Structure formats: structure tokens, C-alpha cells
Amino acid sequence: MGRIEWAMWANEQALAAGLILLAGGIVGVAGQFRGWEFASYAIAAGVFVCLLEYPRSKRAKGTSVERTGQYCFTVCVKAFGPVTRNYYVRAFLHAALCVPGGFMLATVLGCVCLGIASLIYLAAAVRGEHWEPILPRKDTRKPVAESIKSPPQNPPPRPPPEIRRKQAKDVEGAAYDNPMSVTDDE
Amino acid sequence: MAVSVRSWLANEAGKHFVLMLWLAANTWLFLDTYLLYSTGQQYHYLYQMLGLGLCISRASASVLNLNCSLVLLPMCRSLLTFIRGSHTMSTRRMRRLLDKSKSFHVACGIAICIFSAVHVSAHLINVVNFSAGFSEDFPALNLARYKGEDPKLIIFTTIPGVSGVLLVLILLLMFISSSHCIRVCNYEIFWYTHNLFIVFYIILMVHMAGGALKFQTNIEAHPPGCLRASQSLRQQQQAEDLDQKQRCKEDAHFQPHYPQTWLWVSGPLCLYCVERFYRYIRSSHPVTIVTVIRHPCDVVELRMLKKNFRARPGQYILLNCPGVSPFENHPFTLTACPTENKQTFGIHLRIVGDWTEHFAHLLLPQPRAALEILPVVHQRRYPTLYVDGPFGSPSEEVFNYDVSLCIAGGIGVTPFACVLNALIERWQSFRLQRLYFVWVCRELQSFYWFAELLCALHEKLWQDNRPDYLNVKLYVTQKDSLQSMSELRYRPLAARLQVGRPKWKLLFDEIGKSNKDKRVGVFCCGPKGISRTLHRLCNSAKSSGATFEFNKESFS
């Protein structure tokens, strides 16, 4: 199957599951259906999953495209260190979070989606993937060459004053042989 | 940049018209079904029990039927290639609409997702109403077994309920894995989950079995709202005041709906299955690899031979190499089509990504170790290769304009290379009178992929006394080192090479002035930034010059 990055798919699935859980929870609480406490839990769980899954991980190989405005979320998720880096932790966390959603009709879809995401995260963890933050690249400017900073101290070499006077009066006689050849025959 | 009406109409009118037509069809279907269920006599009692949820769920179901049948049609690629190729059946305007088939497929897919959400919500309300509004008067109408039955139980013990849950799950899986990010990074995940559509369609066709919704069959004998013999005395006294109320001749009879989905869906599904089968049969013979040539900047040219393979310039093929991966198919544009003189066809593939790397590794001889003194002669064993195709693409239209502007970015030059190959053979036989060829590359070495071809065509047109037929402009964007093509035989190219990015506005102004009142076909095959800029320029071109029709080659 080549080098598939399961984590990317798991991330999209988990983010979508979080949104569905949130929507189902809102419907459950608004309609005051039987078991609406599970719906209120689903709202909280949905928000938490969305916040955790919003920052995309850096790809192992290739260019990573980050989601709009994910930098602040990246910083927050990075602060938890190995807990959020490891995908085994995420897999078990999502599996645990999704269970209470299965008790109410409005949130059952979110529960199943989160369960699927947890399975994909498990597959990613088994293959050794982990979460890497996408940090902005610091552009290192090329060091400016030394010669640009300091202008030449000495003027260009000129012939001695007698010859300069001769040049001013007699243009033809002022011609001289260049010490170095200027044609590129050699 | 102001938008010019004539240019905008030339570029955007067709696809917006089709979009409006499709939206109108969906809206009409939705409203028609809604009104049927809310005002139809045969649904009177059902409407009384379920309310608005019935109308919305059935209306969204009919829209879903339409979209599930339409979504398959743009994916029948061989059929679309055939339509594109048959000039008698289609005009250039229709062929340009075919370029947008993938966008139409995406639009239908999004409509399916949105209306599925509406349908599911409405049916959930229906289930709650079935349970709470359990009817003692008309027991045949009920889906629940008793009043107040748990809605979850109703859902998971009836065929429509269980199949509905499975359908939603499959749809969600397909939708989430078809996001742009996953398609670009891990195409296989998208492909394998999208192929679950066949399970989706099978379950869809049994979704209506079980007859949850029933309609009344004997309207004349039992007009809805008529008096029944079992009504209480007070109700009868109230009713006797009104003379219009009739007495029921007989009890209401209900019959479940005949499942309709298969009528909508089976046609396109059969068509798609036939097309996949045809493609499988066509690609079951392996091709013979004739030559493999390595080019600078990680490009490999592959020349192949296959019996009965016919292709037009601009088309692309799908390669499958079981030695690399048995299930992956990768698209490559043909750079040389088979002709009467030369039966081989060729592609240029750029090594980027693991499939192409592995494939090139199998094709090219490995660098020998320095210790080997005697050259070992061994038979070059190429891997087996299957070719599916060819499939049509927008670049086929280059020959159907009087003036064409072809803009290529990097390896995107491949469709135009095939065009140039065709021109070298017989430029007189095409409608095309002038070709502007702009090629933008990052490195100078990339131009060597087709430098020979360009110079040969230039030379031929010069000999045939048509030097103004081909206008080549080459741009190299990397300004790090001073570079030029120093070989004598590539002098025509060196003279037309510029360093830096092209100035598109000036180019369009120049072409517009030289070709006043003509339709210029603009063909772009390159990065998104360039194609967006060009699209905007085509729409805003001055009306006093030429009309630019934008055609874009899209990857995947």
C-alpha cells in the first residue's frame, strides 16, 4: 500500500466526528429528549475533540498544509508534550470518549464516527507515526559577503603625474600598453 | 480588472447554465413531492399522524434519487471520451462542458450529503411521531408495535431503519476521506473508501423494502375525513350539523409504496458497471516496453507498443504495474501518439513520490559497481505493465481553434508535446492557423526534454514557408545562475528564452491585438496559481481584441 499516512485520515475523521457529536448534542439538549444529559456530555466531548484535532500534524515526507488559524491550537496541543504526541493515547482517549454517546439516538452517529477514528489512530500508532507540530519556518537570510560592507579604501591605480599631464595635452601619445591582456584569445 | 461581458459569456455561461438547470430540477422535484404528500388525498391519514416530517423526508428522498443517479454519469470516462471524439454528436461548446464533469460529480455528491442530512433528521422526527401518535383507528398505518415504543427499537428492528444507518455510515466514510487534503497526500485511502459506493447502492435499493409508509387505495369509497361507524355519539351529533360530510362506505385500505429507487439508480449503475468491465477487458493485455530514456531533472521517457491502441493528441492513460503495486493506477498524459508510420506511443513521467520512484528503479539500469571490469551483457527485463485508456482531456481541443495559446508549467508540457508531435506530421490538415507556445520552467535543464522536438517543428515550418505558425516563448524562473542554451542546434530556443516569470497581461494584450475578433483557445496545464491568473485574464480581456476561451487541464 505504499507509505500511507493513516494519521491524516484519522485526523479528518476525528474532526468530523467531533463536529457531528457537537451537532447531535445540541439537537438533543434543545429538544429535551429522553436522556438529554448524554447530549450535554456530547457537546462537551465534541468541543474537546474538535480542539484537540484541529491542528494538523506535520507530514513525514512532503509539504504539510495547515488549517487556517491553527497556530494557536498547535501551541496549546504541543504544550502537553508526549501525551498528545503519541497516537496510542489518542486512540484510547477517543474510544473512551465515544462510549457515552451511544446511549442517546441523537449522538449515536457521532459515537460511531469517533469509534472509527479511534481505530484508524490505532493503526497509525502501530505503524509508528506520531504527531509533529507545524511551526512557522524561520527564514535564514544568506550571510552578506564581506566585500559589500566595506567599500574599497584605495582609488584605482593611475599613471604617475608626468604622464597624466602628457595625456591631457597629447591624446595620441598618451596611449599605452596594458600590462594585462584584455582580449580573451588566451 | 473589469470583467468583459463577451469574454465572461464565452467562458462561464455554459457551465452556469447547466448548474441552473440542475438546481431547477432539484427544486422542482422537492416542491412537487412536498406538495404531493401535504395535499394528496391518499396521504391524508399518514400526514395527520406524522405531520411535516413526512413531506420533508419524502421530498428529500426524491431529490436523493435524482442525485444518486446523476452522480455516476460523469464518472463513465470511456463514454465521455467517446462523446468527445465524435464530432458529429457534439459541438465545441458541449465538449467544453465535458471538461467540468468532475465538478458536476462533486456537486451531486455534496447535494447527496446535504439532503441525506435533511432526510435523516426528518425521518427521525417521523419515528418519534410514529411512536407517540400510534393510531388506534387505522392500525395498518402504524410502524410502531404499540404506543410509546422506544424510537431506537423501531429504527434498529426494521429494514429501512437498519439500512438507513448503514447508508449514513458509508456516506460519511466516503465524504470525509474525499477531502482535498487526503486526495493530494494519500490518494489510495480516497480511492478505496470511494469504491464502497457499490455497497452503498446495493443497500440503497433495499432501503425501501418493508413498506414503512403506506398510502390509501380506496379514495372514492372512503374519502378522507368521512364519518366512520365506530365514532362516538357526540362526534356523530357534531358531524350531523354539517351536511357535506358523507358517510364512509367502507374502511380505509392502505398499501405500502412500491420501491422506486431502483428505477432511478439501476440505469446509471449498469452503465457504470459495463464501463468498468469494458475498461478491465481493454487493459487486460500487457504492453510491450520498447525503450526507456532518462532525461534531466528526474524525467523518464517510456515508449510502448500495444495492439489496436489508438489515441488522439492530448489524451491520457492510466498505468498499472503489478511489480510496484497491484491496485494503484496512475494517470500520465501521452507525449507521442501512435501513427501510421510509428506504432509506438510514449509518456514522460516525472519521478516524484514513491510509486514513480519504484517504477523508475525497475525500468532503468542501476549504476554498476566500480569493481566490475568486464561488462556483463544480460537481457533487459522490463516489468509487466498494463495500460488503461486513452481518456479524453480538454487539451484535445487545441486543433479546433483558429488560434491557440498553450501555456505549460514544468512537466505540464506533456499534452502539448503530443500536439507538437502531431503538428510535425501534418500541420496542414488541422483547422489551427497559429499556435502560441509558452513554457515556464524552474530550471534550464528541463527544456531539454523537448528541445529537439521544438527545433524540428520550427525548422519544418520554416521550410514550408509558415514561420508565423509557431510562436515559442520559453521562461526560466530560477535566477540563481546565468544560464543559456549554448548548443548550436538549439539556437532557435536560446533566442526565445527569457529569465524570469512571464508577464501575462502583456502577452494577452499582444495576442489580442494580433488576432482581433478571433476566438483564441487558451490551454493551461500547470500550477494552480498560473491557471487562476489566466482564468481571470481570459474573463477580463478587452472586447476590442480577441475573445479568449479558457480550458484547463486538471490533475486527478
UniProtKB/TrEMBL annotation, chain A:
One of its GO terms (biological process) is macrophage chemotaxis. The keyword Cell membrane applies. Residues 138-186 are annotated as: Disordered. Signal peptide: none annotated. The chain crosses the membrane at residues 91-124. It is found in: Cell membrane. Residues 161-172 have a biased composition (Basic and acidic residues). GO terms for cellular component: NADPH oxidase complex. The keyword Transmembrane applies. Component of the phagocyte NADPH oxidase core complex/cytochrome b558 complex, composed of CYBB (heavy chain (beta)) and CYBA (light chain (alpha)). Component of the phagocyte NADPH oxidase complex composed of an obligatory core heterodimer formed by the membrane proteins CYBA and CYBB and the cytosolic regulatory subunits NCF1/p47-phox, NCF2/p67-phox, NCF4/p40-phox and the small GTPase RAC1 or RAC2. Interacts with NCF1 (via SH3 domain). Interacts with SH3PXD2A. Interacts with DUOX1, DUOX2 and TPO. Interacts with NOX4; this interaction mediates superoxide generation. Subunit of NADPH oxidase complexes that is required for the NADPH oxidase activity that generates, in various cell types, superoxide from molecular oxygen utilizing NADPH as an electron donor. Subunit of the phagocyte NADPH oxidase complex that mediates the transfer of electrons from cytosolic NADPH to O2 to produce the superoxide anion (O2(-)). In the activated complex, electrons are first transferred from NADPH to flavin adenine dinucleotide (FAD) and subsequently transferred via two heme molecules to molecular oxygen, producing superoxide through an outer-sphere reaction. This is Cytochrome b-245 light chain. It comes from Oryzias latipes. The lineage of its organism: Eukaryota, Metazoa, Chordata, Craniata, Vertebrata.
Automatic annotation (TrEMBL), chain B:
One of its GO terms (molecular function) is superoxide-generating NAD(P)H oxidase activity. NADPH oxidase that catalyzes predominantly the reduction of oxygen to H2O2. Can also catalyze to a smaller extent, the reduction of oxygen to superoxide. May function as an oxygen sensor regulating the KCNK3/TASK-1 potassium channel and HIF1A activity. May regulate insulin signaling cascade. May play a role in apoptosis, bone resorption and lipolysaccharide-mediated activation of NFKB. May produce superoxide in the nucleus and play a role in regulating gene expression upon cell stimulation. It catalyses: NADPH + O2 + H(+) = H2O2 + NADP(+); NADPH + 2 O2 = 2 superoxide + NADP(+) + H(+). This is NADPH oxidase 4. Its EC number is 1.6.3.1. Pfam families: FAD_binding_8, Ferric_reduct, NAD_binding_6. InterPro entries: Cyt_b245_heavy_chain, FAD-bd_8, FAD-bd_FR_type, Fe3_Rdtase_TM_dom, Fe_red_NAD-bd_6, FNR_nucleotide-bd, RBOH/FRE, Riboflavin_synthase-like_b-brl. It is a multi-pass membrane protein. One of its GO terms (cellular component) is endoplasmic reticulum membrane. It is found in: Cell junction, Focal adhesion; Cell membrane; Cytoplasm; Endoplasmic reticulum membrane. The chain crosses the membrane at residues 16-37, 57-83, 104-125, 153-177, 189-210. The keyword Signal does not apply. The keyword Cell membrane applies. Residues 282-397 form the FAD-binding FR-type domain. Keywords: Cell junction, Cell membrane, Cytoplasm, Disulfide bond, Endoplasmic reticulum, Glycoprotein, Membrane, NADP, Nucleus, Oxidoreductase, Transmembrane, Transmembrane helix. One of its GO terms (biological process) is defense response. PROSITE patterns: FAD_FR.
